From TrEMBL:
Protein name: Uridylate kinase
Subcellular location: Cytoplasm; Nucleus
GO cellular component: cytoplasm; nucleus
GO molecular function term, any single one: nucleobase-containing compound kinase activity
Recorded catalytic activity of this chain's protein: UMP + ATP = UDP + ADP
Keywords, alphabetical: ATP-binding, Cytoplasm, Kinase, Nucleotide-binding, Nucleus, Pyrimidine biosynthesis, Transferase
EC number(s) on file: 2.7.4.14
NCBIfam families assigned to the protein according to its UniProt record, in alphabetical order: UMP_CMP_kin_fam (TIGR01359)
Annotated ATP binding sites: G41, A42, G43, K44, G45, T46, R165, P210
Cofactor: binding comment: Binds 1 Mg(2+) ion per monomer.
Cofactor: Mg(2+)
Region (NMPbind): 61-91
Enzyme class name: transferase
Length: 228
């Protein structure tokens, strides 16, 4: 299925094949990329929004990009994405990486230099990489990451937050059956990514159990170090 997918992506009108470029596509001198990980409901999106306000990051949520592609009329990936998301599985990396690359391109074309103190594009890539293949491919083809922000709290808290969000989110996967599957995927597939980056000293773990402001205060301490 994956080689097929690659061909499809190359042909899709909104997912054009990239022109040949030196790898990785975005040099480290041009962009700062922070990956944001943590279990479902750990508070990644909430914390990213606060960081955007403070540092002018462009916030790219892999899940949001996938849902937008899923809902785009005539997307040939809509059904595939829907099935993977409902089952709490990781969408084949070619789709997600291409969506991220396109989104980074769009940001850099539209707002280079604007509000970025050091002149580099600043990206928070939220909910990515969720699987080792995504991590390796993104770093090889697209850009090297500077930091992995890792939000942790217990499963009870995450479940509570997700069920609360599910009342209004309209998301197909904020229900108890999907949530259980997402927790399994997180442990089995995403935790190895964290362990991999830990070996390189790139992970900053932040306890996301306390109130939002308190978590934010702890987060800016580590983000400041990366940006200076
Ligand atoms: O991050 P978020 O909770 O919005 O992700 C929702 C779903 O999107 C995940 O459970 C997974 O099915 C899919 N996803 C993915 N690969 C990513 C991020 C999200 O397959 N890197
Ligand atoms: Mg999110």
């Amino acid at each position: 299925m994956v080689p097929n997918l690659l061909e499809k992506i190359a042909d899709a009108p909104r997912l054009p094949s990239s022109p040949k470029h030196e790898k990785p596509k975005f040099a480290k001198e041009k962009v700062t990329v922070i990956f944001v990980l943590g279990g479902p409901g750990a508070g990644k999106g909430t914390q990213c929004s606060l960081l955007v306000g403070k540092y002018n990051f462009s916030h790219l949520s892999a899940g949001d990009l996938l849902r937008a592609e899923q809902d785009r009329p005539n997307s040939q990936f809509g059904d595939l994405i829907r099935t993977y998301i409902r089952e709490g599985n990781i969408v084949p990396m070619e789709v997600t990486i291409k969506l991220l690359e396109n989104a980074m391109d769009a940001v850099l074309v539209s707002k280079t230099g604007e509000g970025w103190g050091d002149g580099r594009g600043r990206f928070l890539i939220d909910g990515f990489p969720r699987k080792m293949d995504q991590a390796l491919k993104f770093e090889e083809d697209v850009c090297t990451s500077s930091l992995v922000l890792f939000f942790t709290t217990n499963e009870e808290t995450m479940l509570e937050r997700l069920l609360e969000r599910g009342k209004t989110s309209g998301r197909d996967d904020d229900n108890i059956e999907s949530i259980k599957k997402r927790f399994v995927t997180y442990k089995e597939t995403t935790m190895p990514v964290i362990e991999y980056y830990e070996k390189f000293g790139k992970v900053a773990e932040v306890d996301s159990s306390p109130a939002v402001d308190e978590v934010h205060a702890a987060t800016i301490v580590v983000v400041d170090k990366v940006l200076t």
